[in-house]
Amino acid sequence: MLFQSARDMIGHTPLVRLALDVPDGTEVYAKLELANPFAMKDRVAKSMVEEALRTGALQPGAPIVESSSGTLALGVALVGRTLGHPVHIVTDPRIDPITLAKLRALDARVHMVASMTGQGWQSARLERLSELLRDLPGAFWPRQYTNPDNPRAYRALVGELIDDLASVDVLVGAVGSGGSLCGSTRELRKTFPSLRSVGVDCVGSALFEQPDFPRRLQSGLGNSLSPNNLDRDVIDEVHWLNDHEAFAATRALVREQGIFAGNTSGSVYRVLTEIATRATPGSRIVGIFPDRGDRYVDTVYSDEYWAEQRVRDLPLATEPGLVAYGTTVTQWSRAALPRADKAGKYLLFIESNTSGTGMDALRTARELGLRPVLITGRPERYAGLDETGSEIVVCDTNSPAELRTVIQERFPRQSIAGLTTTSDFYVPVTAELTEWLDLPGNSADAVAACRNKDVTRGVLWAAGIGQPDYAVVTDVDEVAKAVAETGLPCVVKPSDDSGSNNVKLCADVDEAREMVSRILAVRTNVRGQAAARTVLVEEFVQGDEYSVETFTHDGVTTCIGVTAKSVTAGPHFVETGHVFPAPLPTGAAAELAETVIAALDAVGWRSGPAHTEVKLTATGPRVLEINPRLAGGMIPELIRQAIGADLLEQQLRAATGLPVNLTATREGYAAIRFLLSDRAGVLSGVEGVEEASATPGVTKVAVSARSGTAVEPAENAYGRIGHLIAAGDTAAMVTRTLDAARDRMRICVDTKPSHDGSCDDRLAR
Questions:
Q1: What value does the mean pLDDT take over residues 379-384?
Q2: Are 707 and 742 in contact (CB under 8 A)?
Q3: Average model confidence (pLDDT) across the chain
Q4: Contact present, 702 and 758 (Cβ < 8 Å)
């Protein structure tokens, strides 16, 4: 294999079958991560540094600063220097001379602290690191203990294992930062859900509820702190070995298997041999061996060191004692980890929509026993937020780098149940964050294929799924050619906006050119995010408009139902109302559902709700848009009132790995009518709310616009003044109910400053 640089040599490590006396058919393997250029943490350094460059957290040529006395320092030095970054390593006198020599050979600047401070060597190193961050503007600190790019690095390791082995039943790994075992376990369980994960720790480490003994001799595993990357919930069993047992196992590894390794690998080897004796015949067991033995020639492999440190005074157990988790241990022991449920864990929301469902989602999270956290740039945007009882974290949610920093520093991975959003604008960054944290959700690529409508068009075209003819335009000079391809009238719309904003039916080329110019002039959307400045010119498809509401769980998509949509004829397409379920013949509804499920498969949709807009034409369904989220326009509430399925709750369940229930509990219909103004002016009030609410069958009347608000005939969903909802046994019944209720209401609009107010009793349609 040809490599372009030493950085490319990271990974591709060998897998060795160990020669052990084990039950028939049982296979035990060692994944030799010690065969990386320096050690296993080369993978971590590569992942953290390259991702920081991608997100902008690390600027080209900026310094990298890290605190380490072990192999992470070497990995950071290797990766940083090959990418052109000066590297500063803060360490202490415990660093072995071989590692120190390698760091200096890599041209890393080594900062040696002289003495312990309040919390030992660790705090002394962090104090010096803080000084360096002040003195080196723009310096990047990888923060291996909190950075999810640490466990994320092991996705590549898992890919190598899957390439080499047909299955894995048990994974054994040492635990220090929590990255290797937790990251590998989560990734392996995507392919092998029943995988058993076993952690290896040392006596005197605080990682698994043991008293901390900072002067333990083992290195490379154990910790005096609980790193944010440690997720005990993914680990089934933990073993502790004391220094004598770990050192003896390391010597046994080279004697019995010919593998010259460090004490982390030796400890994993000892646990592997014991697990193999208890394994079901035919089991396949893999251990991760992190580092080579050269760093340990003066310690683990030195009889003089053993005598000096009185290593042999410690017990040497030949098998582990089974103890209850939380029992203090002094020699080789093992315990099953308690299974934690989701109750009390955080559900992080990245912003919210500004309709009622956004705040409803926060309240629903609390009802599920979760701790909702809204991460937002502007909490004042959300009416009723204080009443939800949610924790609020304020940061720049349009900055992926700042979002990552806030999450990794404030929320240990084990404390996070899931991450989601109810805002169309934040679905893409939510998908990126769930991938980063390895939480349930869709891939960022699948979301991008829906959210970016020009990408959607390309994917659906390649899959042969019915949709409008289209052209992608990035310059007004391309409009004439685009219109020639799609015909007139044509629909012009931005590729990345929401709520039918800046969507217009254009009758001629000049009108299309004017609309394209208008869209291209938009630099940011209503949430302050950079606009894509890409425009779609599309064929105007004739036919009735519907939306298909689906929910995907474990890769299987269920059609919840079809919504009939009332939309203004143009030039702007404003939704005036919905009926759920749509009064359609069974065959037509099935055809719409089949088309939408095929479209979702094409974009790679694998989890959660989707809201797909479709027109039913004489030649079949044509997909207009795939919205990678729960429907807006209060459609989830219509579904709840009509058939009893609470899709908002199911979204939160799917986002946190809780069981999902899509079963309908009743058969009925529900409909919504939006309140819109047919004239420009200032809203002075809405009359008849109580009368409309008293109409039999009406379940809700809401006025969202305050008196004194400027109103005008709506051009998009942001022009709504309020809505009415009705439920009943038939579609005709709920439609009549809404007609009767609406007739009791008047929208009062001042059209002149001196006028007392005019009342509009008509609903824009």
A1: 94
A2: no
A3: 94
A4: no
pLDDT of residue 762: 38
Report the C-alpha gap between 95 and 84 in whole angstroms: 25
Asked if pLDDT for residue 239 goes beyond 90, the answer is yes
Sort strands 681-687 and 608-617 into parallel, antiparallel or unpaired.
unpaired
pLDDT confidence bin for 413, thresholds 50/70/90: very high
Pairing of strands 27-32, 64-67: unpaired
The answer for 741, left when phi > 0, alpha when psi is -120 to 50, beta otherwise, is alpha
> Measuring CA to CA, which residue among 598, 597, 628 is closest to residue 611?
628
Q: Are 595 and 623 in contact (CB under 8 A)?
A: yes
460 by Cβ neighbours in 10 Å (0-12 / 13-18 / 19+) ranks as buried
Question: What strands, in cross-sheet order, belong to the sheet with 669-675?
Answer: 620-627, 608-617, 544-553, 556-567, 575-580, 669-675, 722-728, 698-703
CA angle 576, 580, 582 (to 5 degrees): 90
206: exposed, middle or buried (Cβ count in 10 Å: 0-12, 13-18, 19+) = middle
Burial status of residue 415 (CB atoms within 10 A of its CB: 0-12, 13-18, 19 or more) = middle
For residue 6, the model assigns a pLDDT of 83
| Burial class of residue 555 in the structure, from the number of CB atoms within 10 Å of its CB (0-12 exposed, 13-18 middle, 19+ buried) | exposed
Q: Residue 332 half-sphere exposure, CB side, CA atoms within 13 Å?
A: 17
Give CA–CA dist 529/695, Å, rounded: 43
**Unique residue bearing structure tokens 């939306």:** 547
pLDDT digits (tens, 9 = 90+) for 252-273: 999 999 999 999 999 999 999 9
3-state secondary structure of 200: strand
**Confidence at residue 601, expressed as pLDDT on a 0 to 100 scale:** 97
The beta-strand segments (E) located in 4-154 are: 15-17, 27-32, 64-67, 87-91, 109-112
Tell me, letter by letter, the H, E, C secondary structure of 488-545. CCEEEEECCCCCCCCCEEECCHHHHHHHHHHHHCCCECCCCCECCCCEEEEECCCCEE
What would the two tokens of residue 539 be? 């064929």
Per residue in 510-529, pLDDT tens? Answer: 999 999 999 999 999 999 99
- pTM value is 0.91
pLDDT exceeds 80 at position 640 = yes
Q: Do you find a cis peptide bond into 571, omega within 30 degrees of 0?
A: yes
Judge whether residue 651 has pLDDT over 70: yes
Q: Write the single-letter amino acid at 49.
A: V
C-beta separation of 251 from 435 below 8 A: no
Q: How many CB atoms lie within 10 A of CB 297?
A: 14
CA dist., res. 201 & res. 173, Å (int): 9
Distance between CA atoms of 167 and 182, rounded to whole angstroms? 18
* Farthest CA pair distance, the chain: 99
Q: How does DSSP classify residue 457?
A: H
Cβ atoms of 723 and 654 closer than 8 Å: no
Distance CA 358, CA 364 (A): 10
Q: pLDDT digits over 459-483, tens only?
A: 999 999 999 999 999 999 999 999 9
Q: CA 658, 448, 364 angle in degrees (round to 5)?
A: 30
The four Cα atoms 715, 718, 720, 723 give a dihedral, to 10 degrees, of 130
Taking the C-alpha atoms of residue 111 and residue 115, their distance in angstroms, rounded to an integer, is 12
Does residue 188 sit in helix, strand or coil? helix
Rounded-to-integer distance, Cα 706 and Cα 121, Å: 60
